[in-house]
Write a structure and sequence with these properties.
alpha/beta, four-stranded mixed β-sheet, isomerase, Enoyl-CoA_hydra/iso, Enoyl-CoA hydratase
Length: 257
Amino acid sequence: MTIQTTKENGILTIEFDRLERKNAITGAMYATMADALLDAEQDRAIRAVLITGKPDIFTAGNDLDDFLNNAGDGAMGEDRPVFRFMRALEGCTRPVVAAVAGAAVGIGTTMLMHCDLVYCADNAKFSMPFTQLGLCPEFASSVLVAQSAGYTRAAEKLMLGEAFGAQEAFEMGIVARVLPAAELLAFAQGQAAKLVALPAASIRATKALMRRPRAALVAETMDVENKQFGAMLAGAEAKEAFTAFFQKRKPDFSKFD
């Protein structure tokens, strides 16, 4: 299995478990996560969700082989597993806790904007390298990163796509706390257990009220980003970026306007 899901003591745990490929996410993995989140919405026993990876890697983001093989003509249809996962996570009424250690690339970082309590290890490294692949932000990150970190810092991370560490992620408001790697998972599990012990209706209402001001903006932004991302995925710059990646060379964007 590349995604492990367990239900125990009121917590749904979703764990990336594809270490040989740095937890790179395939369409099938997105579908599994979406199904687990949607199932949790119907399970009254589940009162919190925990998303985690491995001690040295959260996720390397999209599995590019799988991603390109299933991209078709570049259209990013709403029925694709990645968008089912996005909608399921953003729409989850249960509180979502994330525990991030090691690299969190692309959607590995942007998905954190849709979690409620985000904790990372001191070895965590975040990046949103969309422009480096000839693409654009996704999962409403074009607005959510700026809301959290401010426009100029968000522009630096989204335009340059360079990696940044745990302390900077904390300063940007992406994570709530930085912990020693050995303590991360137990701490996150403990926080999820605290949520389970609190009145479920109160937690759900608090989450809904906090997210209410941004709900329409997030939905609209995800739709706009989706269309832009799909168009750019079919473009020449993305083709050059992916070709260079697989050929293990530096891409040359100088010939494009």
